[in-house]
Amino acid sequence: MELWHIIVLAVVQGLTEFLPISSSAHLILPSQVLGWPDQGLAFDVAVHVGTLTAVMWYFRQEVYRLTVAWVGDTSRGRVREDSGLAWAVIAGTIPAGLAGLLLNDFIETELRSGLVIAVSTIGFGLVLWWSDAVGRQARDLPALTMKDAIIVGLAQALALIPGTSRSGITITAALFLGLKREAAARFSFLLSIPLILAAGLLKTLELIEQGGATDWTAIVLGTLISFASALLCIHLFLKFLERLGMMPFVIYRLLLGGILLVMLW
User: Fold this and answer.
1) How far is CA 104 from the centre of its chain?
2) Is residue 69 within 8 Å of 87, Cβ to Cβ?
3) CA neighbor of 32 nearest in space, from 89, 115, 98, 126
4) Is the N or the C terminus of the chain less surrounded, counting Cβ atoms within 10 Å?
5) Bridge partners of 179?
């Protein structure tokens, strides 16, 4: 990989992992439009490590607090605010995990097409707009129930469809449930931690099985750049979310989906 390929792909991964604009829609563009070579499994592992480290670092206080509360309250057979949120993250992770195990092969063979990505990018972008328009946006994270977490988790399973956007669909579901924008985004980011970790571990196992030479320059740069871009993305997204709303991301998704359709015409 050329240096600028590494930089662009790592930045794209770091940004699109957490913005509601679909990483798969963006990662198809370099190969489809620019003819870039596939970045390879090792690079995928590296950028997953970078984005995982970024979200865990940004939410390190919440992760520590929720973990301590979950361990302590579970051992005492009780549920309080922090341990309840930890249980919500666990419950919200299960549907996507099960769907990934059951449907991953089907999705890889049947849904990895440019048309599916383009239609999903547009369709779920419009649903994101709808949720932002009709959602009451009156509830904070402490008001999140286990039922809410399961509904958001079921929505997260739809992110297996390329072009959907994991963050986009979870924020969409949370907004429909009446959460405020920042609360919806924070829960989406917390939900990303176990899934990114699981995806990174699976890709690492695949990499070990494949063996072969490793471009350590690409690995190190990819990890560092994806970490920095993801960290900046999370900070700015949460800072300006209430002011901007979801409409800029909806418009961007519509334009991106339209470009993909024109490319496929």
Assistant:
1) 16
2) no
3) 115
4) C
5) 139
